[in-house]
């Protein structure tokens, strides 16, 4: 396959456009970066406007994987099985209703902050694993989409295309933080909307397209077999709910000026994501009724199995005039590159802040943490490339990435925000292990993992027909609740001695004593407050960790507290204990 020189020129032009916009945005905010440090790089100084916020959140989901995967789903299985676009759009709306407000109101920096604030740096850092896997798989879908596009334009092998795509995305991400990413996302949205919309009428009127065939029942809708009803419903639950606990989403929520603005942006971005899925889905439908032998003049034997993931680039190349295909292919390439940096930046931000700084180097400077982020960007890009080369279906990567987050991370996020008082580290670990175990036992054909446990309705040819992923998520949720309540009851009622409290969740941390009575309270330096001791607390007061809520008594300070480095809190030495009844700490 020869190199398409005009196509190469178009993609280079769009790359340069995105690059110039990114550099301009970084240059425009260069003074703010020197003052705000990591908060400027990660969260754009929490000063993101509504217009830019809506477009960057929309563009975060409507990337190359979203666009090409939507066309792939419509082409291979019909519109009814193209679940990701509608599911992820609805996911943004649900996230805005229930999760954007509490996260932004608390003033966190990353999605993992509430976990480390509650369970300590190390236990909370455990949840970095499913979050990282989800982000890498999402990045893999994006890079795979760009790789297939470049293979069509340049005639390169898909492996070479993915590696080149990863290098481009990595270099662009290293240019700057969220300011650059947000402004390039604005360009991405317009490229997708204009570029693909222009392509639709030209593809529709191509002589190789049999538009009359669309009037035949089942020609474009797709079919849901009765044995697939459970799987179909579970897929939507997995996408809608599993699309919530993503750092790439909360990074934009936390960058908003107010919680109300974060909710508004989420609602409108959800609607925008659904609307922008229309052109690629329509192009996928057209591909189902195209005579590809006539369209390609016999040069390519297009099949669902072999060319499903490349169907959109093939349509733009063979069903539209050259100048239209250049616009469409360039728009897709620019969109993919702009989306890739969002995902890579999110995962590297979590690593630098919640793992490197929070666990290993708590005294690291802002400049030090930023350098670690640069190294993490390179590593994440390499891992995403590896996954993009080992999984064939972009649509499958969509579902697999949401799968891990759905089963392992959503129950944790739900409970930490709405059941915080009763959560503890024992429940967190139990939830993680049980959810992971039941999910892995069900197997995963996309990565060649066999099914060890045959759930009800299991079929050797069709695989798991029982909604075992949702069952695994519910088991994970209930495990957290049961273990947290049980451990709380056991230790608070002294059914087990303090030495058995290995995670020290119920040790008695006291920092002051009232005259005539024992007053016990906890001093917890949260992850967010450690980064800025002047930061306001949730109720608007300054330095809230040193406040005393009972102002009607005089308090005598206790002796100096001993820091428990494993959990990042302070507790009283055991020799000073004055009460036989132990109270739960914040874990």
From TrEMBL:
Q: A Gene Ontology biological process annotation?
A: acetylcholine biosynthetic process
Query: Chief subcellular site?
Result: membrane
Report the leader peptide range: none
- PROSITE patterns in the cross-refs: NA_SOLUT_SYMP_3
Please provide an example of a Pfam family that matches this protein in its UniProt record: SSF
A single GO cellular-component term from the record reads: plasma membrane
Q: Where is this region: Disordered?
A: 567-587
| GO MF annotations, alphabetized | choline:sodium symporter activity
Topology in membrane: Multi-pass membrane protein
Q: Which Gene3D superfamilies match?
A: Sodium/glucose cotransporter
Q: Which InterPro entries match?
A: Choline_transporter (IPR052244), Na/Glc_symporter_sf (IPR038377), Na/solute_symporter (IPR001734)
- Alphabetical keyword list: Glycoprotein, Ion transport, Membrane, Neurotransmitter biosynthesis, Sodium, Sodium transport, Symport, Transmembrane, Transmembrane helix, Transport
Localization: Membrane
- Membrane-crossing ranges are 6-27, 48-68, 74-100, 121-146, 152-174, 186-204, 267-287, 323-347, 368-388, 394-419, 431-458, 470-491
Family statement drawn from the similarity comment of this UniProt entry: Belongs to the sodium:solute symporter (SSF) (TC 2.A.21) family.
What protein am I looking at?
High-affinity choline transporter 1
Task: Please give the organism.
Answer: Daphnia galeata
């Amino acid at each position: 396959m020869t190199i398409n020189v005009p196509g190469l020129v178009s993609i280079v032009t769009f790359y340069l456009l995105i690059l110039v916009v990114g550099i301009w945005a970084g240059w425009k905010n260069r003074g703010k970066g020197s003052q705000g440090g990591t908060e400027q790089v990660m969260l754009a100084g929490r000063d993101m406007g509504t217009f830019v916020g809506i477009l960057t959140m929309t563009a975060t989901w409507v990337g190359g994987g979203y666009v090409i995967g939507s066309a792939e789903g419509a082409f291979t299985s019909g519109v009814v099985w193209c679940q990701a676009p509608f599911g992820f759009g609805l996911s943004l709306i649900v996230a805005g209703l229930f999760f954007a407000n509490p996260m932004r109101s608390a003033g966190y920096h990353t999605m993992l902050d509430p976990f480390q604030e509650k369970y300590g740096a190390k236990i909370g850092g455990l949840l970095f694993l499913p979050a990282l896997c989800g982000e890498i798989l999402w990045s893999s879908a994006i890079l795979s989409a760009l790789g297939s596009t470049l293979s069509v334009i340049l005639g390169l092998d898909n492996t070479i295309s993915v590696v080149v795509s990863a290098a481009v995305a990595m270099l662009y991400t290293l240019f700057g933080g969220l300011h650059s990413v947000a402004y390039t996302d604005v360009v991405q949205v317009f490229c997708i909307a204009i570029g693909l919309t222009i392509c639709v009428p030209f593809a529709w009127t191509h002589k190789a397209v049999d538009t009359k065939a669309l009037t035949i029942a089942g020609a474009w809708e797709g079919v849901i077999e009765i044995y697939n009803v459970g799987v179909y419903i579970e897929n939507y639950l997995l996408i809608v709910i599993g699309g919530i606990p993503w750092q790439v989403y909360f990074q934009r929520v936390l960058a908003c000026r107010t919680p109300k603005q974060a909710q508004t942006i989420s609602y409108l971005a959800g609607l925008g994501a659904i609307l922008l899925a229309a052109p690629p889905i329509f192009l996928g439908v057209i591909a189902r009724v195209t005579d590809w032998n006539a369209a390609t003049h016999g040069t390519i034997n297009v099949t669902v199995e072999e060319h499903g993931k490349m169907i959109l680039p093939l349509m733009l190349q063979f069903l539209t005039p050259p100048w239209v295909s250049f616009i469409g292919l360039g728009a897709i390439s620019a969109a993919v590159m702009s989306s890739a940096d969002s995902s890579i930046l999110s995962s590297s931000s979590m690593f630098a802040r919640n793992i490197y700084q929070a666990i290993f180097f708590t005294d690291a400077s802002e400049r030090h943490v930023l350098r670690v982020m640069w190294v993490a960007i390179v590593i994440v890009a390499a891992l995403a490339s590896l996954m993009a080369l080992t999984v064939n279906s972009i649509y499958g990567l969509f579902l697999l990435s949401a799968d891990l987050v759905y089963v392992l991370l959503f129950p944790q996020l739900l409970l930490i925000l709405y059941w915080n008082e009763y959560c503890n580290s024992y429940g967190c670990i139990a939830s993680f292990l049980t959810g992971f175990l039941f999910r892995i036992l069900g197997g995963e054909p996309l990565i060649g993992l066999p099914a060890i446990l045959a759930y009800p309705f299991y079929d050797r040819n069709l695989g798991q027909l029982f909604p075992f992923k949702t069952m695994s998520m519910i088991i994970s949720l209930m495990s957290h609740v049961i273990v947290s309540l049980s451990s709380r009851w056991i230790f608070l009622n002294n059914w087990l001695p303090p030495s058995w409290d290995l995670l020290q969740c119920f040790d008695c941390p006291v920092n002051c004593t009232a005259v005539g009575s024992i007053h016990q309270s906890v001093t917890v330096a949260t992850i967010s407050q450690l980064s800025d001791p002047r930061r306001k607390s949730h109720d608007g007061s300054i330095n809230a960790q040193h406040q005393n809520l009972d102002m009607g008594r005089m308090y005598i300070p206790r002796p100096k507290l001993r820091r428990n480095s494993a959990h990042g809190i302070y507790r009283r030495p055991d020799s000073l204990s004055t009460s036989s009844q132990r109270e739960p700490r914040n874990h």
